[in-house]
Amino acid sequence: MNRRCIRSTLQSLFFAGLLIATLSLLASGGTSVWPAAQARETSQSSQTSAPQDIPVISVADLPVQARDMLKRIEQGGPFEGYKDGVIFGNYERLLPSKRRGYYREYTVPTPGARNRGARRIVCGGAKHHPDVCYYTHDHYASFRRIAQ
């Protein structure tokens, strides 16, 4: 088989799958036929409706490593993580909607972890004096606003 024939076959398979998915969606009355997609749609709609209901955590209740990271953020560094200070996209839509670049993320070291771990602080506003900061211990699955 030559490349043109293979490409044509792959395109046909792709469009056939797209057609089947579209017909299945229409037959289901507009609701998703795939449970994972339906769960994602449900979770996204609930997430976008209530970011102001984010629970609050006091600085004193944060892990020691998170308190240290907060001090570093306010001082402008130094940061040990290679991704500290990068833009956080808020793709999960758990935080209030802001313009791109408003949020920055910082790694909170996890004792014993061989990688970055799941703990982060996400701050919004000015880089060294943020308006608001949030803590997540489960890699963006949930957030708590840090009361300062």
TrEMBL record:
UniProt GO MF annotations: hydrolase activity; RNA binding; RNA endonuclease activity
Lineage: Bacteria, Pseudomonadati, Pseudomonadota, Betaproteobacteria, Burkholderiales
Gene name of this polypeptide: rnaSA
Keyword Nuclease on entry: yes
Group of enzyme by EC: hydrolase
Pfam hit, one: Ribonuclease
Keyword entries, A-Z: Hydrolase, Nuclease
Species in which this protein is naturally found: Thiomonas arsenitoxydans (strain DSM 22701 / CIP 110005 / 3As)
The protein's Enzyme Commission number: 3.1.27.3
Protein name: Guanyl-specific ribonuclease Sa
Nuclease listed as a keyword: yes
